[in-house]
Structure formats: structure tokens, C-alpha cells
Amino acid sequence: MRVQKERLRERGWTGKEIKHAERILLKAAQKQHPGYRFLERAVFWGLLFLTVVAVFTISLVVWIAAALLDTFTVTAVLVIFGLVLGTLYTLVASDIDWLEHHHHAFAGAALATTAIVTSSIIGTRLAIVSKVLGEPAKNTWLPGLLFACALLTPHFSRLWLERTRTTPARRRKKK
């Protein structure tokens, strides 16, 4: 865990208190078992891999739901799955202490790439199902795009909220 000096100063911490907090966190990090950091890394990369696999599995199996359900229901189910997967990933990734900005950037890029590819797979699958069922292919790309947006929304909204979070001291300075 890192000490955010600027935020602490805005909240009224003195330089001495900040240094003391840094020393405590440094000692705690040095006492940490070496396997703990490995476990955190394994959890992060494993979670990213499992999220990507789950997303691709959903995109490949969506044709079964499309054959059985109407387009609105398929879209609703996809959006719910996207929100659940995105939220699970975001919750776990936000609790890992060692993640730096470039890790979040890589994870965001990986999720965005996965979402775009999955969106096209879902659109293609739905077009094939509508052709096989003899129905007109209307909005076959919309469910995939909504799934992609739902998957990315939790991750990017958390990053946005962290960036725009204001403390009471910042609000007082703006007035």
C-alpha cells in the first residue's frame, strides 16, 4: 500500500505524521511473506484470464439463447452477464495493493479488446441464428455492443470515480 501524500496533506496531516505512516507501511511490507505477493499476482492475472475466457464462452454460447429467446431477452441476459463479470473483475482488481497505473491500463486494454472481439462474435452468431430461423436480421450487433459496454462500465467507472473523487479540503479551495 502506498501513502498518498497530497491527499493526506489535504486532510490535515502533518509531514511528520505522513513520514510515520510511510515507515509503518514499509515495515509491514518487509515483514510480508514472499509468497503473498506471488499469490496476489497469480490472483490478478488468473482473474484477468478467467474473465476473458468467461466472456468468450458467453459469446460462443449466445446462439443457444438466441434460438430459444427473443432479441430483447437475449440482450437483457447479455447485459446482466456483462455487468456481473465486469463488477467481479473490478472488485477483485481494486483490492490488490501492488497494482500500478500501467497494470490498470493493460487490464483496461485487455478488457476493451476482449469486449470488441466478443461484440463482433455475438453479432455474427446472432446473424447466423436469425438466418437459420428464417427471421429478418434486425439489430444483430446491438446485443453485442451492449454486452461490451456493460462489461467495461464497472472498470472504467471505478477509474473515473477515483480520478474525480474530491476531498472536503479540495472543495473548500474551489469556493
What topology does this entry show?
Layout (H helix, E strand, L loop, with lengths): L4 H6 L4 H17 L2 H35 L2 H24 L6 H33 L8 H23 L3 H7 L1
Record keyword descriptors for this entry.
mainly alpha, 2 domains, 175 residues, 7 helices
Explain what you see.
This protein has 175 residues and is an all-alpha fold. It has 2 domains: 1-31; 35-174, no CATH class. Helix content is 83%, strand content 0%. It has 7 helices and no strands. Helix 3 packs antiparallel against helix 4 and helix 4 runs parallel beside helix 6. It is elongated, with a radius of gyration of 22 Å.
Approximate helicity band: over 70%
Distance between the termini: 32 Å
Instruction: Profile the largest sheet.
Output: none
The total tally of domains equals 2
Continuous helix count: 7
Envelope shape = elongated
Q: Give the oligomeric state.
A: single chain
Output the helix-strand order: HHHHHHH
Task: Please tally the β strands and state the result.
Answer: 0
CA-atom Rg in angstroms:
22 Å
- Secondary-structure-derived class: mainly alpha
Average pLDDT metric:
80
Indicate the proportion of strand residues: under 5%
**Unreliable stretches:** none
